[in-house]
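Can you give me the bound-state structure? Components:
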Amino acid sequence: MLINSRSEATPTSAHDRVYRGLRSRIMHGEIGPGAALTLRGIGAEFEVSMTPAREAVRRLVAEGALTLSTSGRVATPELSNERIEELAALRSLIEVELASRALPRAHMALIDRLQTINGAISDAVDRKDAVAYIRTNLEFHRTLYLRAQAPAMLAMAETVWLQLGPTMRALYGRLRRTEPPHFHRLIIAALKAGDEPGLRLAVRSDVTQGLKMLAG
Amino acid sequence: MLINSRSEATPTSAHDRVYRGLRSRIMHGEIGPGAALTLRGIGAEFEVSMTPAREAVRRLVAEGALTLSTSGRVATPELSNERIEELAALRSLIEVELASRALPRAHMALIDRLQTINGAISDAVDRKDAVAYIRTNLEFHRTLYLRAQAPAMLAMAETVWLQLGPTMRALYGRLRRTEPPHFHRLIIAALKAGDEPGLRLAVRSDVTQGLKMLAG
DNA sequence: CATGCTTCCATGTGATCACAAATGGACACA
DNA sequence: TGTGTCCATTTGTGATCACATGGAAGCATG
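Here's the bound-state model for the whole set.
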């Protein structure tokens, strides 16, 4: 409505709310690969018009979180195996560097927090909750990388997570979920010991671990 | 106008034309850091309404090519030294990997093409044409990396270039431009010799070279 | 002459609408 | 029963408009 005199201030812009909502869902695997979305549907769900919905979608397309068919239809991407391998390699490159930069700044408080998060991951595994698993797993990594004080690199890493989101859901879904996060314990041990080569190896292993499922 | 019966088919969508135009300018350093843009201005320049202009801007903001002030004003970013260091490190990480993947596929035709581009770079240096220098320099790298057959990685690298675009203009502007591309010759030599460690070192040196100017 | 306030214009935001194209299903026919 | 065609509905695109806000210029006051 044009005569919208809601004096209650909008804390954040509409397109940003839509963007954040969709981004969170995609990154955490709440939407499977190949799912179709419509601008009007998004708008209705977030109670906004098509304009902010379109802007949010454009932004997510730019980040590779959504694909646009030639006719403009919006959907989550179905990644080829080659693409998954590339994205895993990117994760490895960027996240090993982030972990390496975080290492000198990693104090006990950080390690405690990581162990707490690890407990939450085990809970999610026990509950067979794929979305919670993905979310807490990413939180583990983000908590570590925040210490690197490298926002541009972290943003890049999150963009890769975003692109892998729908696929991770499918991937972890077919995974027999009996294993607690093994490599996470190696990461924590390397942090405690100040062992940089060990940390790099542990992060690389953790990041590329899920990929093995796919190839096998 | 709503009664727009232009039967001449739009070959590509309006927002895409605007996006490509702006992106090219920013990446190639045609716009200096801190320059302000307006949606109406962009729309007038590309002869479209504000809607496609906004979509293109949103997309470029998502890619880090533009910044949005809290009040929504659009401008090219002025990067801090820490940010520049981070982006250079990202270039190094990603592009070394791309070059390494391209190496086994690099045949003579590719090396010839790279040498031709190198000639164009020298011309740009002689003409003191900063924009042409940046454009041909990036073309050199892109030509090499295309052989890696890794589109996701290449897209990441280009996003970093985009973020560095306005800064590169300022950087190469204050550079005494007497030097032909030294490290490019090392890259070509390593490609010819099939020397992977040498190639990795040459690419890393070339990518981080410009940064030295800034710190010094 | 400097500093604070006020006003006005420029600018971003979001809703709505007209239009075109594509998609999906219904229906007829082989 | 399979297949091709046609139509209706869904969907994206882009233009325009009303509104709120922020910045800059101008004015007044110390």
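A couple of observations. Residues 2-5, 38-40, 50, 54, 71-74 of chain A lie near DNA strand D (CB under 10 Å from a C1'). Residues 1-10 of chain A have pLDDT under 50 and may be disordered.
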